[in-house]
Amino acid sequence: MSRADMQKDPSEVAGMFDATAKRYDLLNSLLSGGNDKLWRIQMQRAVRPQAGERILDVAAGTGASAAPMAKAGALVTALDISHGMLEEGRRRHPDIEFVHGSATELPFDDDTFDAVTISFGLRNVQQPRAALSEFYRVLKPAGRLVVCEFSHPPVDVVRKGYELYLRTALPGMARLASSNPEAYRYLVESISTWPDQHSLSQWIRTAGFTRVAHRNLTLGVVALHRGRKPTEQTAALRLARHASAEEQAD
Length: 250
Known about the structure:
Helix content is 48%, strand content 20%.
């Protein structure tokens, strides 16, 4: 069975998820001890989807995160690079629009969506900072970004215990339960090499987002990041302040 490496070639990543699509959500629940459902509830609360809003869920997989937002009345577009995931998502949620596409080249116009979300998918993107810039582009002014991703527990004893689980227990469980255990070796590597909460927050700020903040879930095993695309007035004010600061420095 296939697994991607840390170069994260898009075709390899897509092929890896094609091979795990049918049992993906079940295995996530097993390997996270059921915490994945709690994380998605917190994600939903952070997004606060409203009826009639247009929301883009990137790396949507089978639609596990998109479905609650659609149920709340939002017009959700679920995008993924894996045809296998999209096929399974359409089967489970025929009322949701599933679109094939890359996070770094979104097939949408500027200023289209009220919110962009991505759950446990940003670390699988070959160029995550380019993806953040794309999220910014397709958001309307004042649009919301919510990123839910694995992270690094800030407390040393928790971090060491979590790293031990990733190195030993998770691969063993994957070998027993998964038809593609190699994919879960990639999972461990991708989590271990992913930047911490503060680094990801800085990436989000660099992409242009304001009101950037994060909240740790499950002691920092997962972090929920948020940001806003500034309105035109806010962006103009930021530019004016920057120019003023440069003048004072001169």
